[in-house]
What we know:
The structure is a homodimer. The first copy, chain A, has a single domain (10-176), classed as P-loop containing nucleotide triphosphate hydrolases (Rossmann fold). The first copy, chain A, has a five-stranded parallel sheet with strand order 2-3-1-4-5, sandwiched between helices. Helix content of chain A is 44%, strand content 16%. By secondary structure, chain A is an alpha/beta fold. Chain A is globular, with a radius of gyration of 16 Å. Chain A has seven helices and five strands. Chain A has helices at 22-33, 44-51, 59-78, 92-104, 118-124, 129-134, 165-176; strands spanning 10-15, 39-43, 82-86, 108-115, 156-159. Chain A binds chain B through residues 1-3, 6, 34-36, 38-40, 42, 50-51, 54, 64, 67-68, 71-72, 75-76, 78-81, 83, and chain B through 1-3, 6, 34-36, 38-40, 42, 50-51, 54, 64, 67-68, 71-72, 75-76, 78-81, 83.
Amino acid sequence: MGFERKPKGLVVWFTGLSGVGKSTLARRVKAELEAHRAVEVLDGDEVRRFLSADLGFSKADRDANVRRIGFVARAVARTGAVAICAAISPWAAARDEVRALAEADGVRFVEVALHAPLEVLTGRDPKGLYAKAIAGELLHFTGVNDPYEPPRNPELRLDTSLTGEDACVAAVMRVLE
Amino acid sequence: MGFERKPKGLVVWFTGLSGVGKSTLARRVKAELEAHRAVEVLDGDEVRRFLSADLGFSKADRDANVRRIGFVARAVARTGAVAICAAISPWAAARDEVRALAEADGVRFVEVALHAPLEVLTGRDPKGLYAKAIAGELLHFTGVNDPYEPPRNPELRLDTSLTGEDACVAAVMRVLE
């Protein structure tokens, strides 16, 4: 295949509730990796705007969005690059499907489950979304009035209310190396 | 940025009617490039299945599909890889939008306009789609009962009824090198 120089593709998939730190850690891990690897961050909000503007927040639509992110991540990782995905991705079956397709392509899949107690997240709430959801003004808000299925066997679990940002980055890097 | 070893990303965009040779040339060019570059082919039919199953063939839906392929192509090419796209992409404005976004990302965009006379395409017609469209059994079929806007300034134009497969591949490679 002539790919001696091509490293094995990698998908790092951050899953967890809004505000738990997915996008922040995705950017931090990208910064750590990009000195020696090509890296692309696929952020759930950005992907929704460009790829899934037609989709809402029903289970079917969320699963479709996760599948699309997975498709892009595989396309990136098949070239030998690292795709770092930051998406709530609340349903375990959709995440597992993305993993299976990546692994079938010879791509390593590292699922990082981020957690923080709801009272911590509602305390942070920089966009005021939890307040709106708790007040009933926002429906289908994961963790408040829409379900979240935690990963059963993630490569890494981090509680971002207990572990600082630098320590979280270091933990992810240890799993990747 | 630490990207000394990373080549400049590249999108090769084949546009043209069904049966004109987009997928075939995409695979051939991939085979030429992959000895020294990471390459990913984004085939219109495959992308539709995974990314755009919700979309039909109206102008708005075709443009949305082209935008999505462009999003994936940029994600691939930003890592320094080559994204080869094979999609009818009949509307010039949507193609130009994808080009502008790629170039804004520092990615080179090479548009390859494939053409063959309709009588040649209807003669090939391996899937019998032209026959159905001409019989009125298939609507929104580009080139028969749906418009196609040829590129105004593509990097390369090839008439696949006049130029053989090997010569087409060689012409694309000359533009890329």
